[in-house]
Amino acid sequence: MTNAGDWLDWNAERARDWIAVPQASDDKYSRGVLGMLTGSAEYPGAAVLGVEAAVRTGVGMVRYRGPERAAHLVLARRPEVVTAAGRVQAWLLGSGMDAGTRSDETTKAVRAALAEGLPSVVDAGCLDLVEGGGPLVVTPHFRELRALLGRHGVVATVEQIQRAPGEWAIRAAAALQVTVLVKGNVTHIASPAGLNLRLAGSTPWLATAGTGDVLGGILGALLATHAEQARDDPNALAKLAATASLLHSRAAIRASAGGPIAALDVAEVLPATIARLLGAAG
User: Fold this and answer.
1) Eight-state DSSP code of residue 118
2) Is 207 left (phi over 0), alpha (psi -120 to 50) or beta?
3) All residues at 6 or more sequence positions from 76 whose CB lies less than 8 Å from its CB, including other chains
4) Cβ distance 97 to 125 under 8 Å?
């Protein structure tokens, strides 16, 4: 396992290089199209939160392909979102889903998306569909990581993961051959190529329902805007995941201003957070 010296602390200077700033020649397709299969009858709001975050992070188009009720809520909030099938550069899969209640139709759709081999974020209710390999970022919390490891022959307790989340992130990245982002007070990101990144210093007010869905939307947007790098550079996914986590943390601090926040508050301040990051010296 790793020790503290093996971790690189991600910061604003590094993150700035992974924000895609549109040029005069760009259009909505060249800026990246993110496909989303998120939300469910039980948790339709997860789809709204992820879409809101993706749109506000800076992507050319969001193509939402989730369940009907969630699609109606998404369009009510973001009428520019496209719900028709079509080409995408990256996928966000699983936020707001439960593997135990996921329909056969949804499972088939998620498997088809994964089979495309595009850079993808896999969260929550689709983690059980990760077979390993490919340009994937998985974003489990501690219990989800335990289950994910178990399906790949690595036994751990939740308590063991809580005590050393970075070490277990590295083990998961090696076992699954995907990039692993373990959420927590300190976020740990491990790539199968051996790049280990971490971030600390967010606000405890971020520990509230739906903020993980916002993180998924941010990361999905970054993958869509850097799809070629995410496919070709074995460490790009880890850097994009770390950048998403940094934006998520800084947006939460901005939205909180020392007080309580809701998940949508975090998504709404992303444009100002990104503008500050791009304009700041450090």
Assistant:
1) -
2) beta
3) none
4) yes
CB 143 within 8 A of CB 130: no
pTM of the model: 0.96
Task: Tell me if residue 213 falls in helix, strand or coil.
Answer: helix
CATH of the domain at 162: 3.40.1190.20
The conformational region for residue 201 under phi > 0 = left, psi -120 to 50 = alpha, else beta, is left
Q: 8 - beta bridge partners? A: 197
Look up residue 41 and give its amino acid: A
The domain containing residue 67 runs over which residues?
Answer: 4-279
Task: Work out how many domains the chain is built from and give that number.
Answer: 1
Whether residue 26 contacts residue 53, with contact meaning beta carbons closer than 8 Å, is answered with: no
Q: Render each residue's pLDDT in the chain as its tens digit; 282 residues.
A: 444 448 999 999 999 999 999 999 999 999 999 999 999 999 999 999 999 999 999 999 999 999 999 999 999 999 999 999 999 999 999 999 999 999 999 999 999 999 999 999 999 999 999 998 999 999 999 999 999 999 999 999 999 999 999 999 999 999 999 999 998 889 999 999 999 999 998 999 999 999 999 999 999 999 999 999 999 998 999 999 999 999 999 999 999 999 999 999 999 999 999 999 999 544
Amino acid at 7: W
CB–CB of 237/179 below 8 Å?
Answer: yes
89, 227 in Cβ contact below 8 A?
yes
Residue ranges with strand state E in the chain: 8-9, 33-37, 61-64, 90-93, 120-122, 136-138, 179-182, 187-190, 196-199
State the Cα–Cα distance between residues 252 and 237, nearest whole angstrom: 22
